[in-house]
Write a structure and sequence with these properties.
With 309 residues, the chain is of the alpha+beta class. It is built from 5 helices and 15 strands. Strand 13 and strand 14 (271-279) form a beta hairpin. It is globular.
Length: 309
């Protein structure tokens, strides 16, 4: 069927069969040639050549639990599946109540002397605290104002420390302020610095090396946190790192802890000391709250002549 255009010429309303068949033949020829070009290299590849196999994505370390598959939720140290996981038996258990051994030295709860060579900023605090002590005053008694003692002092205060050991973690509660410390044993890594929540007791990750429990603690808060007090006030910084090597001695009646502490912001090199803790079976941890009104009778918290800020 034909129609007349505006200029009077007759035009076809649809293409003729011959006009359709010719392009299709040409298109088929070009498609066949293109297929041959693409397939030719595959036909001439040596038999030994093959594409590398696809690899499954590696599990992602969560930093707050066991290593979990990418996208999975962190695994709690108290999750039944984590607790039930097959692990080598621990060489010893620290479950029990422990108290710093002061039988040889009543000042054994302190971490010096000797002290490392202090950086200028830390030395300024140490000198000021010595001067205050000589004058019968107190220098920045943050603990008396209910700031947490923090690690390492929380381990050696004149209060017992209750410890409960599970396959995945050791839970510690101090009789001093009921301060909580957790040592994770389930293979997790430290939390990345850009997301970690810093605390006074830090983040403790433990592992067994033979019959020794090695605990690496990092990510401390630096404000109101002291390494030692009572005459030599030495601050703790955010770069503080404490490595403890814990052994069971005296037939399980004592724990021996070797401390290696570094903080390049506040002192040079390593600060080392070794402490012993006695097992105490006649005491339990009680609920304790440090409240400012309960400390008002202390000269270190109320007396303007006794407190040197």
């Amino acid at each position: 069927m034909a129609a007349r255009s505006s200029n009077g010429r007759r035009v076809s309303a649809r293409p003729s069969p011959s006009n359709v068949r010719v392009p299709l033949k040409r298109l088929g020829f070009h498609a066949l040639a293109l297929t041959a070009i693409v397939a030719l290299p595959l036909l001439v590849l040596p038999a030994s050549c093959s594409a590398p196999p696809l690899e499954a994505p590696a599990p992602a370390a969560t930093g707050v639990g066991e290593v979990s598959p990418a996208g999975a939720e962190p695994v709690s140290a108290l999750a039944p599946a984590n607790l039930a996981k097959a692990r080598p038996a621990a060489p010893f258990s620290v479950t029990g109540n422990w108290f710093i051994d002061v039988s040889q030295n009543p000042d054994a709860w302190r971490f010096g002397p000797p002290y490392p060579a202090l950086k200028p900023g830390a030395q300024k605090h140490a000198d000021a605290s010595k001067k205050a002590t000589a004058e019968g005053k107190v220098y920045r008694d943050d603990i008396g104002q209910c700031w947490p003692a923090g690690l390492p002092l929380i381990m050696t205060r004149y209060w017992p420390m209750a410890m409960i050991q599970l396959p995945t973690a050791i839970y510690m509660v101090s009789g001093f302020m009921n301060s909580l410390r957790i040592v994770y044993l389930d293979g997790r890594s430290h939390t990345p610095e850009d997301i970690v929540v810093r605390t006074f007791n830090g983040e403790s990750i433990g592992r067994w090396e033979g019959d020794t429990l090695v605990v690496d603690t990092r990510h401390f808060r630096a404000d109101h946190h002291w390494m030692d007090q009572g005459g030599v006030s030495i601050p703790a910084g955010e770069q503080l790192r404490i490595v403890e090597r814990i052994k069971s001695v005296s037939d399980g009646k004592q724990l021996e802890i070797e401390y290696t502490m570094t903080d390049p912001e506040n002192w040079d090199g390593e600060w080392k000391t070794t402490k012993r803790f006695n097992r105490v079976d006649d005491v339990d941890i009680q609920e304790v709250s440090c409240l400012p009104d309960l400390n008002e009778h202390l000269q270190s918290t109320t007396s303007k002549t006794q407190v040197l800020q």
